[in-house]
Amino acid sequence: MNGAGHAMPSRTPTRSALQQPFSRRHFLAAAAAGAITPAWSRAHAAWQGEPSQPPDSTAAAASPQLAAQTRSLMPVPYSVQWRTGGMPLSSGFYAAATGATRQDERVEAALSRLMMRIARRTALNLDPWRRGAPATAGLLVNCQAAGPHFPALGEDENYRLEISPEQARLEAPGIAGALRGLETLYQLIEAQPPGYGFPAVVIEDRPRFAWRGLLLDVSRHFQSVAEVERTLELMACCKFNVLHWHLSDDQGFRVESRVFPRLQELGSDGQFYSQSEIRQVIEHARRLGIRILPEFDMPAHTQAWMPGYPRLGSAPGPYHIARTFGYHNAVFDPTRGYVYHFLDRFFAEMAGLFPDAFLHIGGDENKGPEWRENTDIRAFMRRHGIHSKAGLQTYFNRRLNPIVRRHGKIMAGWEEILNPKLPKDVVVEAWLSVGALANIVKHGNRGILSAGYYLDLMWPAAQHYAVDPIPADSPMSAEEKARVLGGEACMWGEFVPPPILDSHIWPRAAAIAERLWSPAGVHDVPDMYRRLNLTSLELEALGSTHRALPGMLLRGFARGQNPAPLLTFMDVIEPIKGYGHSQHTYNVFTPPAFMCYAAPPESAARQWLPPLVQSFLRRPQSAAGKAAGRRLLQLFTAWDRGYEGYKKLLPHGPQMAELEPLYRALAGLGAAGRTAVRSLMGQQPLPGDWTAQKLAALAAIQPKYGDVILIIGPQMALLLDAADTGKTSGSEPVS
Ligand code: ACM
Question: What pLDDT score does 7 carry?
């Protein structure tokens, strides 16, 4: 899917401020407006770490009042009433399940998992499998009914959790709610010296949206069963409830078909899921309360189907699995009966494999050259009075929908399938713009939003968090709003070979999960980051490699030398934003062997550098200002030293050379930063054109080295500008 778009300027969604060319004016305006250093800059007034290794930002609470209310909860529940006191945890802690919960293996599995996590968090020697009398259980779970065997759209996910000094009681109408409530319970663990415990609280919770998905593209890069299962576990931690599994595209067909085995034999390079593996993943997801939504994208994005079954295509072929990204022309021939017979048998098989009520047929980015170039197709269009590519795709969808329906499924597809004649039960996914969602529900269809939630754009979490399926000023009527089912974070796979999967999803996706679960009024960004940093720790504890991965790659680059200079660098760079990649050849074979793969999509410095600069600039001569100034001096020195160390590492990993100019520029900025800080601390004016020169040097740094960007530009611009003659101490450049 979007792969096509990935390389195509035409499909750029919202252009991020981060993508704009560096310029002084831009830096100053953006930094002052909070566009680049958003509200989290209020956080971290007291930063205590080594400059090159900032601490976790768990102390970053903007508002202590809010932090006292939301604590570690993410997503924030619908209603929370804190009580005084709490329930201490001891090694005698055990759970009991009553009602419909009692014999359900989902609950049993969830309780054991929870106990293991509690034990790891608290150092208590808990027996994860111990169950006992409900009256004396530390945790009592009770469901009125089990709910559907497989998770289903609209299933009741409500729960009520009441913790008293004696017991934690979790009540839910169905298992799905109980599973969500257990995640909340885990997040409530707190230190109660000398040990741990739960605070006394009453939580009544329910999701704002019923459809809270994560799309995983396993076609561009295959992700193993282990990776998919880990992703499911991490999703459950954030109360996501749909894995949208993008299983076929031009670069690979990833499911075993027994009816059409040449699909995987010739379309996957041997990288596909057997049917038993698919069942295993579905069962894993079921136990976590997560639906699996399979997507077979068509009529375009189908090149990998055609090496095995070339008659599906609209051109003579021969066809090969695509190795490059961007648009490919292969498209099903919608005029041939063969195609519908094929799809009928194919969907019969897949409907038996995937239990979810919905089947996603893609439908995006059909560019149509194969249709235009085929004389039979053109003649067919004339005969049927079809005048456009869109008209022919509608014809295709109208023949496809009854097939999907015959096999008991409801069709879902990308927004390009929207058409007045589209049956109203079809769920349509907005991806090109947030506004498309309003159009979809106006048509009478149900809609989900993925525009604004594309994780592969490398946006900071706050930028995704600001996107709401139903914004406060939405033009939708109440009836239309009711047709908004929710949204999906999308991890398109072009630039995501397996080892970097976690770091490109987590923890940012948790901010999207909160947007889709929590009430609309939950949108405080600093508090979100405070809780995201805590969630990040839990994701790591569950096996996510998002934090470990950069270090692993960098140690590999350093080949046994000290990788510290690389870690210093990694604090201040990020992968290029959007689809602006240009410095390497990116195709399915590109190994994750460049620095841009190690760079975290959202650098830690975004959180700790702005408050540090601000606390310095507020009063450079005060004690607090001087302390911040000293930290800045350490930081800038670390950049210089890092650069010297980096040069020594280059012979050990020659591919690092591409970032040498950028690191050199960083060292230069460090030197300029030191001069600026010393000048501000000593109130010594700098020569007339010094600031102008340094700002010009800063503006000259383009995001052209190795497809990474330096993210410290706005802060450096503020500092250099403040050091300019006449604009120095006492001024408050940032409020
Ligand atoms: C898409 O990104 N082409 C749905």
Answer: 34
